[in-house]
Amino acid sequence: MAFPAGLVELIETLSQHGVDQAVICPGSRNAPIMLAISRNAAIESFSISDERSAGFFALGLALHSKKPVILCCTSGSAALNLAPAIAEAYFQEVPLIVLTADRPQEWIGQWDGQTIYQERIFGAHAKQYFSYSTKSNESSDEVWHRNRIANDAFWSAVSAPQGPVQINIPIQEPFYPEKGAALPVAKPIRKIQKWIAPKSLDIATKTFIQRQISVSNKIVITVGQFPKNAAIQSAIAALMKKGIPVLADSIANLSRIAFDSHDLILANTQTWEGLQPDLHIHLGKSFVSKRIKQFLRSNTEKQEWQVNPHPQALIADPFKGLQHVLEIDEEAFLKELVQLNISEKQKDYFQAWKKADEIIAAIRAKGINDWNELGIYQKIAQALPQSNAEIHVANSLSVRYLNWMNFVPKGIEVFANRGTSGIDGCLSTAIGAAQSNPNLVISILGDVAFHYDKNALWNSYIPNNVRIIVMNNQGGGIFRNLDGAKDLPELEAFMETQQVFHAENTAKDAGINYISVKHTNELLHALSHFFQDSDKAQLIEIESNSSINAAALAQYMALFKG
Q1: What's the DSSP call for residue 173?
Q2: pLDDT score at 137
Q3: Which domains does the chain have, with CATH numbers?
Q4: Membrane spanning segments where (predicted)?
Q5: What is the CA radius of gyration of the chain?
C-alpha cells in the first residue's frame, strides 16, 4: 500500500521540536498515525483505551514535562470523549497536540460508520485548528503546506498562553501496511525556530507601580492556582515580611508562606469592613473559595490589578472590578514590589490580617477526634511526607478540605483540575503525572470522582509511587453543605449521586494494594506505612457517613462565623 502521505514527516517534525511523549487511543482509522508515532524511536508512547481517561493522562504528562504531548485518537465519537481534558488543558494553559483521525471529506454526512463533524470539534477550547491532507498525489505546495502545519501546530501549542491544538487528519483506505512492510523514511523536513525573549519592567510600568503603591495604605495580594515556583515563594515571603498580606489557596503552592486561611477568616462577615483593601493585586488563575470572591466583589471603591504575562484574548475579571492588566512577568513584578517603601498604615493593615489568621490557627490546632471527614483529613495531613511528594486533589469537597484544614506541607506541590473544575479525569491526570516521576504521587478524591474515572487504572502504567486516597461517603457529599440544595427533598435521589460501590475490585484488577478503613484505629495503622516505599501502588478507601460529615462541617464552620 501507499502509506498515507505526510504522517511520518508530521511526527518527525514534532519530534525534532522536542515533543517526546504521546498517548495513543487504540483504533482503526488512526492506525497509520499510531504507526508513525510508535515507530519513531525518539517518542515514548502510551496506549490508553478510554479516550476520556487518555486525555487527562496526557494532561498529567504535560504538567510534569512542561512540553507538548501528542494525543491521538480514531475517528467518530472518540474525539468527543477527549473534550473534557481538552477544555481543562485550555484553561490550565497546558500544551497538547491532538491528532484526530477522520474519514475523507467526501464521506462526511453520508451515514458512513464512525463519521461525525470533526473539524473544530473542540470549539473555543482549542487554541488552533488545522486540517492535514494525507493524499498521495504530492505536489511541492502540498509538502510545503504540511510542513508549515506541523511547525504551526507546535508553536501554537507552546506560545503563551500555552494550550491544546487540534490537527484533524482525513485518511483514506487502505491504511494498514502490508505484513512486514516498513514505513517510508521521513523526507527532509524544515524546522521553523522561534526566539522568545523574557519580558522585563520598562520605566513607564515601574513609574506606574511606584506611584500607586506610594498612595495605597491597604494593599492585598491574592494568588489563585499557580505552579510551585521557588523564586515566587521567596518573593512572597519577602512581601509578607515587609507588611503586604498575601492570601493564597492551597492550589497556589504557597502553603505556610502566605495566609491560607482566608476562607475561614471571611466566614465572619463582621470582619469584612476592616479587612477591605484599597488596592487588590491578583496573580495566578482561579480561586477555589467562593467567599473571597464575594468579599472582593463587595468593595467597589478599591483599585484592582491583574498581573498576567500571557492573558487570554478574553479579559478575565472574576472580582468584577478590574482596572489594570499588567502583562509582565510575575517574578519581576514581585521583586519590584519588594523594593518599594510602604506606609505605617499598610503595616497596620497587615497586622489585622495576621491577627485574624492567628485566631483561625488556634481553632484549627484543636484535634478532631470524632469519625468524620474533618478528622480524617486532619490525620492524613499529620501523616503526609514533608517533601519528595506531590498531591493531585479532586474537585468538589476534596479540594475545599485542603483549604479548610491547613493541609499541605510547605515542601509539597499541589495539582488540581481547576481549569473547568470538573469531576472527570482527576485520577487519570495523577496517573499520567506519575510517569517517569521520582516523587510520590498522592491522589485524593471522593468516591464519585473515583468511580467516574476508574478507567484511569485500566492500563499497564500504574507505577509503584502512586498513592490513592478514596473518601467514600456513598455519594456526592458536597451537596449536603450547600445552602438551598441541602434542604431539597430531591437531594438524595437526584443530586448526591448515591452509590454503594467500593474500590476494592478495581484496585485488585489493577494490581494495586488495597486497604479498607472504617474507624480511627484502622486509619492510623494504615497511615503509619501508607506513604513508605512499596513494590506496588497503594489505595486506601476510607468510609464515613455523609450526614455525619455534613453536620460536623457545619459545626466546624460555625466556630469561625463569630
Answers
A1: S
A2: 66
A3: 7-170 (3.40.50.970), 203-363 (3.40.50.1220), 373-558 (3.40.50.970)
A4: none
A5: 25
pTM above 0.85, yes or no: yes
When comparing pLDDT for 429 and 5, which is higher? 429
Query: In terms of C-beta distances under 8 Å and separation of at least 24 residues, what long-range contacts does 477-484 make, across chains too?
Result: 477/373, 477/396, 477/397, 477/446, 477/546, 477/549, 477/550, 478/396, 478/397, 478/400, 480/546, 480/547, 480/549, 480/550, 481/397, 481/550, 481/553, 481/554
**DSSP state string for 456-523:** GGSSS---TTEEEEEEE-SS-GGGGGSTTTTT-TTIIIIIS------SHHHHHHTT-EEEEE-SHHHH
pLDDT band at 492 (very low <50, low <70, confident <90, very high): low
| Euclidean distance between CA atoms 345 and 337, whole angstroms | 17
What span, in angstroms and rounded, lies between the C-alpha atoms of 465 and 442? 8
C-alpha cell at 427: 485520577
Give the pLDDT mean for 5-20: 95
β-bridge partners, 70: 22, 97
Q: Which phi and psi (to 5°) does residue 542 adopt?
A: -110, 115
Ordered alpha helix ranges (H), 196-311:
203-214, 230-242, 262-265, 272-275, 290-297
Q: What is the DSSP letter of 259?
A: B
- pLDDT tens-digit profile of 418-436? 999 998 999 999 999 999 8
Q: Read off the pLDDT of residues 356-391 as tens digits, 9 standing for 90 and up.
A: 999 999 988 887 888 999 999 999 999 999 999 999
CB 165 within 8 A of CB 82: no
The CA-to-CA distance between both ends of the chain, in Å, stands at 76
Taking a C-beta distance cutoff of 8 angstroms, is the pair 29, 102 a contact?
Answer: yes
Region class of 120: left (phi > 0), else alpha (psi between -120 and 50), else beta: left
- The order of strands in the sheet holding 513-517 is 413-416, 389-393, 440-446, 466-472, 538-543, 513-517
Cβ neighbour number for residue 135 with a 10 Å cutoff: 15
CA atoms within 13 A on the CB side of 164: 35
Q: What is the DSSP letter of 45?
A: E
Q: For residue 349, give the C-alpha cell.
A: 493593615
Residue 201's nearest CA partner among 83, 94, 66, 339 is: 339
The grid coordinates listed for 122 are: 473542540
Going by pLDDT thresholds of 50, 70 and 90, the confidence category of residue 394 is very high
Q: Which three cell numbers stand for residue 220?
A: 492585598
How many C-beta neighbours within 10 Å does residue 521 have?
9
Three-state DSSP class for 238? helix
